[in-house]
Amino acid sequence: MKTLYKKSVLIVILITLFTTASNAQISKAEIRATGLTCSMCSNAINKQLKAMPEVKNVDIDLNTNTFVVSLSENNSLKPSVFKEKVENAGFFIGSLILTTNSETIKSSSYIVVEGKKNNSIEVQIQILDKGYVTDKELKKLSKSYKNSLTYNNNNENDFHIKIVN
Amino acid sequence: MKKFLLIFVVFIFQRVSSQELFLLTDPASNVPANSLGVNVLQSAFEREMTSGYMYSIMPEVTYGLNRNLMLRASAFISNRDSQLVAEGGNFLVKYRFYSEDDLNSHFRLAAFGRYSFNSADIHQEQIEIMGQNAGFETGIVATKLIKKIAISSTVSFEKAFNNNRNILLPNTLGDNATNYTLSFGKLMYPKKYISLKQTNINLMVEFIGQTINENGKSYLDVIPVIQFIFNSQARLDLAYRRELMSSMIRTAPNGVYLNLYYTFFNLKN
Lengths: 165, 269
What we know:
The complex is a heterodimer. By secondary structure, chain A is of the alpha+beta class. Chain A has four helices and seven strands. In chain A, 32% of the residues lie in helices and 29% in strands. Chain A is globular and about 65 Å long. The model of chain A is unreliable at 18-23 (pLDDT under 50). Chain B has one domain. Chain B is built from one helix and twelve strands; from the N terminus they run H-E-E-E-E-E-E-E-E-E-E-E-E. Chain B starts with a helix and ends in a 5-residue tail after the last strand. The chains are: A alpha+beta, B mainly beta. The interface between A and B is large, with 29 and 42 residues.
């Protein structure tokens, strides 16, 4: 009986661990790329994104250079992966909006600087750090958050976010 | 000819739109990281001294080592001496060291170095390490994209050595030059993008000039280009090169180009 009890405790712990892991994930990324106006350039970004095994589909609006990336469940991607892919193609991110589970943003890597946490299961967040916004916006944001203890440190593992929805 | 040029330039500026994938004047942007570009540039140039055309083929491979560093190898094959002969080749390294990107615009700077070997006979005052001379070239490229207009300019220093096979560069010729280029590009079609499969048509005009540093002899050429991009992956360029002015001896300044280009994306994946 005791072993059975121990086993069930273990199972419960494992399940909790796994659900937490699967909760901490990004289901969709909306990337607006900067510095390009040609479809061959867009295709370079498209190919970079599609080469990721977690990517299910990429929808592109070539006129605005917006890439809507649908991701597989239980992925453990960080926002930085999108920055890396776009920059490898030779361009930059102008805005990055992620659809994610509200559990995700409770992690210490995410620092909410704008918008309020709500109770919905899914949230849309915009990353406001250097490399995720245009240079012009970054200047404005740096001024707005000059009193923030972390924003102007540009720590690659900290993501300052705005809750969009 | 001048009228045609004026019309062409006005046409280019009328609508604001662009491309910077120039045929002869590389922009400051590089090919994507881990991507391989393969192209074959063919040309037929009218001989000035004798009759007929000089035909040449230049196969090239271009690789994006990372987002900022690009490598290229080219080979030169021509019928300068009646038969098609592989005369030489060159290596190019280009490093993008500055990028300022905004929505639909960018300003970029890159530095490049090119080293070339060649075993052709030397018949002209023009220094051309892309197919004529052994030597090197180093310079800076600046490319600006404003909304949809692309303007790119290069300034470089070019130095010729004696060619291989002990072919000496005559003492009477200058062995180094300053090169300058100015290029404009415009996207003509489509007006609005629908898909990556759409064929794009670009019009470009490139100006290429050189001054031999020792004696000030110079030339200036214009190259109008029409470019088709298929499936956002393959390119076909057709161009005409015309000498606008020259105070130096050149063997074959006027001619046409045909370039075929294909990109293999993400080689490492």
